[in-house]
Design a protein that fits this description.
Blueprint: H1 18-60, H2 64-67, H3 70-97, E1 105-110, H4 113-128, H5 132-141, H6 145-151, H7 154-176, E2 185-189, E3 192-195, E4 198-203, E5 214-226, E6 229-241, E7 245-254, H8 259-270, E8 277-279, E9 284-285, H9 301-309, H10 319-327, H11 346-361, H12 374-381, H13 385-394, H14 397-400, H15 403-432, H16 438-465, H17 473-483, H18 485-500, H19 508-529, E10 541-545, E11 551-555, H20 564-568, H21 574-604, H22 607-610, H23 615-648, H24 654-678, H25 684-711, H26 716-745, H27 749-772
Parallel strand pairs: 4-5, 5-8
Antiparallel strand pairs: 1-2, 2-3, 3-4, 5-6, 6-7, 8-9, 10-11
Helix pairs in contact: 1-3, 11-16, 11-17, 11-19, 13-16, 15-16, 15-19, 15-26, 16-17, 17-23, 17-25, 21-23, 21-25, 21-26, 21-27, 23-25, 24-25, 24-27
Keywords: Membrane, Transmembrane, Transmembrane helix
Main location: membrane
Transmembrane segments: 37-59, 65-85, 131-150, 156-173, 349-370, 390-409, 416-436, 442-466, 473-492, 512-533, 575-594, 623-642, 654-677, 683-707, 719-738, 750-769
Length: 775
């Protein structure tokens, strides 16, 4: 019985019939059509919004509608540009994939029904093992009052249930759908793979990453024992990018009867694309890991013999690399190929940092809500006390609960995250001024919060990635923009109030529109600048000395990004728990100073002891807040530059530097507690109060750097989103705890000592935990 007549258990052929091949071609073409119509749909919606606003303004004679026309008009231009670029690229790739079953066809097979059920159970159970961290994650996340209220509020709960249902339908159901030969199959062709309803367009491993193509890194045929059933599995490693590099692994079950055929097919698939091909089922390895580019003296005979004995006669299409190597006089073999070092020019790095800073400046707009126009919203719309608390809490929910933004950052990159978050914030700001129902206003502010939170996460993520050490001056400048964001929005709104001279309760709608103008004018240029960012521009090399004493350059192997379920295991790590406690202590102690400054200084020098209220003395309390803000910004810059200098020279790591900073400010809080109780009438106390802002600035810079150092820049979005939960909890819990402690003891002294203890415990735990494990 030939290869093309291998029967299934049910008597069917394992290989695809002509009709099934035709159906698969139709599925692929429909996928390309859907891909090409996405942008035109948004283009039509934007154009319709422009026409609708024009007509609404003409019929109602209200000028407010004309105010929003620039937003969708800009969308028309952006989507029009994307349609032009996207469609040209998609048409070219579609022409290539149309030949999958013609001259480029290599082989195809259907999955066995019985073995596929076992394989699905294996993959599902493997993923479910990572859910053990969900319990810890949920327990910590539920401590935030805003999250608790969210799940007790019916309108939002309904929206979340609908979203979860859509995720199940789109992602979970296809895995367990009934057996279909055109879905549960694999098609291999020159430059493309089709399996489980998805098409992967391929290019050589050494090619520059592309947003619509996958780099074929390696192919392995291996045998796995799955619930007592021996199964052959074809494992394919791919890499792609959408403004960020992402690795993906495909595991495809191979019928036992087709093992020899697939063995040959994978060699044909790899030819010209990758040199890492192996067959673990027959103990035959074609090529080992790609080695370092060597000179003729360093090229060993064993590597040559390995290439000669390989069953796959592979040729690697990397002409630019071979040309460079030959010019240097080096002997080139396929396993000696190395992607050359590429680094972005300084002007590009500076421009991206400027864009990230512009985005970060808008990140504090929701934090400025309480200090500007929240009271007017509450009075004008008649909010209840519960709705007032919801508005204050949910407006910053997206900034603190950053997990959605972190996932988008990891899988799609900062440009997509920034632009998506920008449009989300613009949508919220645009429609909230037309609403009167409290729950709709709160819903719009949730969208605004997630929008500006995503904008800041995109800026923070790109500042981490463009630094060779995961921190330094890039993240310092961006964090400094975030530190000055609240002050900028408050000052800008005060200036707008003086110009507009509007004091009625309805004026809050004008203030919201003013914030919308600031968002468009500042954040949009920053988001568009991030289009210049590509992770491949910042590939850093390390030096390694070989056995002969010569220095070789070796490309740092990219670590495969962790999945969400894998990242949740971090809540069992002592190091991360120390980091979590440290972020809670750092943010909580800073919120303690910011929210209680006037009461603290009143305890230090009571009004009764001041005699007549001297304005110069009262101004000291305001000056403390002002100096705190400047120390915060100065701490951003100083900590970033200094920590980067020490880490790049391997003097100390970021986590060690953070431990020292927390220990220092633990002592500062102890001194503040002692001075408050025993040393009156000294300027040292208000100066130290303001100096705690320097520590807050250090935390804003170093904690992201430690996260990137410990878990990798490619995982920064996910792990920092988990860490942000601690700041959310601190912002809610700290004022309550401080108030209760002060009421019970009659002094803020014990609050100072409590902050000092938390900072010191975190510093010690982080230092010890870092020595044992990162995770």
């Amino acid at each position: 019985m030939g290869v093309h007549q291998v029967p299934l258990l049910g008597g069917e052929d394992l290989l695809l019939t002509p009709q099934e091949k035709k159906e698969i071609s139709g599925v692929i073409n429909n996928a390309w059509i859907r891909m090409k119509v996405i942008m035109p749909i948004f283009f039509i919606l934007s154009a319709g919004a422009v026409v609708g606003l024009l007509l609404a303004g003409l019929f109602t004679k209200k000028r407010e509608f004309y105010f929003y026309i620039p937003g969708p008009s800009l969308g028309v231009l952006i989507y029009g540009l994307f349609i032009f670029l996207h469609s040209r690229r998609a048409n070219k790739l579609q022409q290539d994939t149309d030949e999958m079953f013609e001259e480029k066809f290599i082989g195809a097979w259907k999955f066995e029904r019985e073995s596929w059920k076992t394989f699905v159970k294996y993959t599902f159970d493997r993923d479910m093992k990572d859910l053990r961290g969900v319990i810890c994650f949920a327990a910590v996340a539920m401590t935030a009052a805003t999250v608790v209220t969210l799940f007790t509020w019916l309108p939002l709960t309904g929206v979340m249930l609908v979203m979860c249902s859509l995720m199940v339908i789109l992602f979970v159901y296809p895995r367990f759908r009934r057996y279909q030969p055109t879905y549960h199959c694999c098609v291999l062709s020159r430059g493309a793979i089709y399996t489980l309803g998805q098409l992967y367009v391929l290019q050589p491993a050494a090619s520059l990453v592309d947003s619509m193509i996958y780099n074929l890194l390696s192919i392995t045929l291996e045998e796995k024992d799955i619930y007592g059933l021996k199964m052959k599995v074809l494992r394919i490693e791919l890499k792609t990018t959408f403004q960020n590099e992402v690795r993906e692994t495909i595991e495809i079950p191979v019928p036992e009867a087709l093992t020899q055929a697939v063995d040959k097919w994978m060699c044909d698939l790899a030819e010209g694309f990758t040199v890492e091909v192996s067959n673990a089922t027959s103990s035959r390895t074609f090529v080992k890991d790609v080695a370092i580019l060597k000179t003729p003296k360093q090229t060993t005979a064993s590597s040559k013999n390995l290439m000669r004995s390989a069953s796959c006669n592979l040729s690697h299409t990397t002409e630019p690399i071979e040309k460079t190597a030959r010019m240097s006089g080096a002997e080139v073999s396929e396993r000696d190929l190395l992607i050359p070092k590429r680094s972005a020019p300084l002007w590009k790095i500076l421009l991206i940092v400027i864009g990230g800073t512009l985005m970060a400046i808008t990140g504090g707009s929701t934090n400025a809500l309480s200090a500007t126009y929240k009271s007017q919203i509450v009075q004008n719309l008649g909010f209840s006390s519960t709705e007032d608390s919801l508005l204050a809490g949910f407006s910053v929910l997206g900034l603190y609960f950053a997990l959605p933004a972190g996932l988008i950052l990891k899988h799609f990159g900062p440009f997509v995250l920034g632009l998506t978050s920008f449009f989300l914030a613009v949508f919220g700001y645009s429609f909230v001024t037309f609403l009167s129902a409290p729950w709709l206003v709160i819903l719009m502010y949730i969208l605004i919060g997630f929008g500006v939170g995503g904008i800041f996460m995109a800026a923070l993520g790109v500042s981490i990635n463009i630094s060779s050490t995961g921190g330094g001056w890039t993240i310092s400048v961006v964090s400094c923009g975030m530190s000055l964001s609240v002050a900028f929005h408050v000052a800008a709104l005060k200036l707008f109030k003086q110009v507009s001279q509007c004091n009625a309760d309805e004026c809050w709608r004008q203030y919201v529109r003013f914030y919308l103008v600031l968002l468009v004018c500042i954040a949009l240029p920053g988001c568009l600048i991030l289009y210049l960012y590509k992770l491949s521009d910042y590939s850093h090399l390390t030096e390694e000395v070989d056995e002969h004493g010569s220095i070789q350059e070796e490309r740092v192997k990219e670590k495969k990004g962790d999945t969400l379920l894998q990242s949740l295991k971090v809540f069992k790590s002592p190091f991360f728990l120390s980091l979590f406690l440290g972020y809670f202590a750092g943010v909580g102690s800073s919120i303690f100073i910011l929210t209680q400054t006037f009461d603290i200084y009143d305890e230090y020098i009571p009004l009764s002891a001041r005699g007549s209220v001297d304005s110069s003395i009262v101004d000291i309390e305001s000056w403390i807040i002002l100096i705190f803000s400047f120390c915060n910004a100065f701490g951003n810059l100083t900590a970033g530059v200094l920590s980067d200098y020490l880490a790049s020279r391997k003097i100390v790591s970021y986590s060690t530097f953070l431990s020292v900073v927390q220990a220092v400010f633990s002592v500062v809080f102890v001194v503040l507690g002692v001075i408050l109780a025993h040393w009156k009438n000294t300027m040292l106390f208000p100066l130290l109060l303001a100096f705690t802002g320097f520590g807050f600035g250090c935390y804003l810079v170093i904690f992201p750097s430690v996260t990137a150092e410990a878990y990798g820049a490619q995982n920064f979005g996910q792990y920092f989103a988990h860490l942000q939960i601690s700041s959310s909890v601190a912002s809610v819990v700290t004022p309550i705890i401080v108030s209760q402690v002060n009421k019970a003891s009659g002094s803020f002294q014990w609050s100072f000592f409590g902050c000092a203890a938390l900072l010191m415990v975190s510093a010690i735990g982080m230092f010890i935990g870092r020595l044992t494990s990162k995770r």
